[in-house]
Specification:
Blueprint (H helix, E strand, L loop, with lengths): L1 E3 L1 H7 L4 H8 L3 H8 L8 H11 L3 H4 E3 L2 H4 L2
Antiparallel strand pairs: 1-2
Protein name: Helix-turn-helix transcriptional regulator
Organism: Hydrogenophaga crocea
GO molecular function: DNA binding
Length: about 70
């Protein structure tokens, strides 16, 4: 399972989805799906924009966890 740390990153910086959407031009629906970890696919350009925006590496945004770790 892939975990997305978008919500944590936003919380640490006290940002709202509207702030990130306005600053990056990424669709609010896309950001909402990332926030709630319901996205089924993500464009590479979106990942690149988010990494640039937060000044992070992709490994800070996405993490692969074993299925048993995901439930706990």
């Amino acid at each position: 399972m892939i975990r997305c740390h978008f919500a944590r990153l936003m919380g640490e910086r006290k940002l709202k989805i509207a702030d990130v959407a306005r600053d990056t031009g990424i669709n609010r629906g896309t950001l909402t799906r990332l926030y709630y970890e319901t996205a089924e696919r993500i464009e590479l350009e979106v990942l690149d924009q988010l990494c640039e925006y937060f000044q992070i590496d992709i490994s800070d945004l996405l993490e692969r966890v074993n299925s048993d770790q995901a439930s706990g």
